Amino acid sequence: MREDFLHYLWKYKKFDFANAKTTQGEKILLLDCGTHNFNAGPDFFNARLKIGEQLWAGNVELHIKASDWYFHQHETDPNYDNVILHVVWEDDVPVSRRNKTRIPALSLKNLVDASLINEYRSLFASTTTWINCEQTFPQVDNFTLRHWQERLYLERLEEKSRLIEQLLKKSENNWEAVLFQLLSKNFGLNLNGDAFLSVAQSFGFSVLQKCGADHLKLEALFLGQAGLLDRNRNTAYYKALEAEYQYLKHKFRLSNTGITRPKYFRLRPDNFPNIRFSQLASLYTRHKYYFLALMKANSVTSIYKLLDAETATFWETHYSFTKSHKKRKKALPKKFKDLVIINTLIPLRFCYAKARGIDEIEFLFSVMEQLASEENKITKGFNKLRASTSVNAMQSQALLQMKRHYCEPNRCLHCAIGTKILKGDI
109-122 burial, b for 16+ CB within 10 Å, e for fewer? Predict the structure, then answer.
């Protein structure tokens, strides 16, 4: 038995509330179960009850055993002074507030249908399945699944907003600077994301702006700050970058102390840090007011066009400063652009629209639904259980959110699919 099961029973009134009585025999009339609280403090706020002949308004706390009240030291916490009912599975001890007044208790043990308890136990019975509901998941109706995926994606956008809000605070609400930092992190991918971000944060955005539309200056700035120009190479391009960086370093009093050096190990050559930094420099060489351009883009096609970027000419025949290869342009591929849109542009537009009081959700969903689903273990796992569960990027992002924040921590009772299973609607 888990405490969140009691939350589910109380929130959805999945017990015989018509016969509910306190453990001292007083009739309980449930007028309003209250608002579910997911933060510190009582589990439900602002409930309304009638116990005996007395009307009550206040908070409700739930525990498996009544004695958990003392285990969590609620009897000394002023946040629990306004608890009007203690809902438990087993009432093993009476509990009191700080002022020693006793709190009425409701035991649900004998008020819950046995079939519901069996459904609950079977949902959590297996320890070997990929997700708890994998036997039932294929039977979920399309409307429930799609609606839940939309809610999950909004939840994921809110989660990604936290980093953006932190960066905005540090940059004094400089949206252009935050875009640059997020793009840098994205260009580093999973392996070098933090390293690229540390480079972007190692100088003020005004430094980047003062380098203007000069690709050599921008690339020298990025590679130099990343510590990738600290070896003596004889190629003319290396020497040009090194000389430019030394000039910039002196002019802007740059320091790369504390910056995480990007890694090359296990990376495909097209993802080498020097290649990605050169492409990032290309974006800022082409667009002076890049943030506004991206925020005004009104179609997927226009967004893709704004992400067109190639390396400097030198990198068309090189992956390193020392070895050359047959000439080949190294432009940002569509899959990489999709990652940038998913992880940077859509979350940033979501935050920007919210800051201006504008509703862009329909447009953001439309963009995400036009992008192909991400391919990873999680999306493949869900598609294996149920074909076409993840077709577009909105769905794949939603499934990542569900697997990591609901399936893995066994938060099935907070999941629309889990609650539907318990209700017997599948």
Answer: eebbeeebeeebee
